[in-house]
TrEMBL record:
Pathway note: Amino-acid biosynthesis; L-tryptophan biosynthesis; L-tryptophan from chorismate: step 4/5
PANTHER family with a match to the protein in the record: INDOLE-3-GLYCEROL-PHOSPHATE SYNTHASE, TRYPTOPHAN BIOSYNTHESIS PROTEIN
Name used for this protein in its record: indole-3-glycerol-phosphate synthase
The EC number(s) this enzyme carries: 4.1.1.48
């Protein structure tokens, strides 16, 4: 529950919640809606002790209405998580769910259809194990003690203005499913430091162990090394627990992948990010995912991934195509766009800049050079001001 309550000397009560005051719930006639005052982080309600119970109940109702995940909906509706996702065109299925008769015997679900599905199935097991080891209340307590979040989007905006080219989110990734091991000598802090020195605005730290040889220890080590660039936790988020965990390790932003997450989970996870002061990079691959994401409130940053999930092929024309089709709506909503994957040359960067992006996310082309930081000037065709 995200709400809290405190008594003042005058026997009045203040209820705080992360939920916007604008949300009005249908209430039974016997329930007195408390007077609400909007604050930056939700609403405040000052009421007498006689009505304090209704204020507290109301805040809980708001939380329950908005802090809901697809997991909750599946219990309420009787539909499986996969049915909810499929209705939105999501092809990546979940594995660790109760079986439903409509999904057959289960035998045909034993083989993942592509690498992203394999990653998600592995992630379900990993997250369940991590949650069993460290319950949410403990992770929330560590997140509250973590160094404060830094402004991820602000850092990108400032760097884009400073250098008159898209800001760089430089990736710290040892290996990938498509390319295998990217470099033998891999010291995440050393790589992060040279990225920062050479003008990266933000860093993306892979934390998935099984498929990318990353770790949360790498994220924590970079955060505690004194590096100032805001950090994106590059993880396959399927549960809010992971967002609190990322925050507890010092992340300033997380990745939310539309190919994996139903709309209600994106909405819910965005609210969790906001309540923690973190940014969210919402990643899309195609028009259908982009259209879904554009209908979700609270999206500030969209990543267009140029890598096909099925074939691993990268094509920067994907960024151009999606911005040609939906650039107007994106601009209207003042959403900023990051082009991700497959950027190797100054021409590639110029191409996506012309398409309208304000940042690029780059891993392989930097990490395969001896000094990934010095490779930045090669990628942009000029040195970047840090
Ligand atoms: O990189 C992969 O092989 C991969 C496979 C399946 C899912 C995600 C994958 N990569 C994550 C990324 O989005 C990239 O690491 C990131 O955009 C940087 O791309 P690149 O510059 O091409 O390394």
């Amino acid at each position: 529950m995200e709400s809290s309550m405190s008594m003042s000397a005058a026997a009045s009560v203040v209820v705080r919640t992360c939920v916007p005051a604008a949300v009005m719930l249908p209430l039974s006639p016997s329930f007195t809606r408390p007077a609400l005052r909007t604050t930056g982080r939700g609403f405040r309600c000052r009421c007498s002790s006689a009505t304090k119970d209704s204020a507290v109940v109301y805040s809980r109702l708001l939380d329950d209405a908005l802090f809901r995940s697809a997991e909750v909906i599946q219990w309420e509706s009787g539909k499986s998580m996969n049915a909810i996702a499929t209705a939105q065109g999501i092809q990546i299925r979940r594995r660790c769910r109760p079986r439903y008769p409509s999904e057959g015997t289960g035998a045909e679900r034993a083989v993942p259809r592509n690498i992203l599905e394999q990653i998600i199935w592995d992630k379900e097991v990993e997250v369940a194990q991590r949650k069993a080891r460290t319950p949410l209340c403990e992770v929330k307590a560590s997140a509250a003690l973590a160094p404060p979040p830094r402004d991820f989007v602000g850092a990108l905006r400032a760097a884009c203005r400073r250098n008159a080219v898209p800001a760089l989110v430089a990736e710290v990734k040892k290996a990938s499913p498509s390319k295998g091991l990217l470099r033998d000598h891999f010291d995440p802090v050393e790589i992060a430091r040279t990225y920062e020195k050479n003008g990266a605005a933000c860093l993306s730290i892979l934390t998935d162990e099984k498929h990318f040889q990353g770790s949360f220890e790498n994220l924590e080590a970079v955060r505690s090394s004194g590096i100032n660039c805001p950090l994106l936790c590059k993880e396959f988020v399927i549960d809010a627990w992971q967002i609190y965990y990322a925050r507890s390790k010092g992340a300033d932003a997380v990745l939310l992948i539309a190919a994996v997450l139903p709309d209600i989970d994106i909405t819910y996870f965005l609210r969790v990010c906001k309540s923690l002061g973190m940014a969210a990079l919402v990643e899309v691959h195609d028009e259908r995912e982009l259209d879904r994401v554009l209908k979700i409130d609270g999206v500030e940053l969209i990543g267009i991934n140029n890598r096909s999930l099925g074939t691993f092929e990268v094509d920067t024309a994907n960024t151009n195509m999606l911005l040609e089709k939906r650039g107007d709506i994106i601009n209207e909503k003042r959403i900023q766009v990051v082009s991700e994957s497959g950027l190797f040359t100054p021409d590639d960067v110029a191409y996506v800049q012309k398409a309208g992006v304000f940042a690029v996310l780059v891993g392989e082309s930097l990490l395969t050079q001896e000094d990934p930081g010095r490779a930045i000037a090669g990628l942009f065709g000029k040195e970047l001001l840090p």
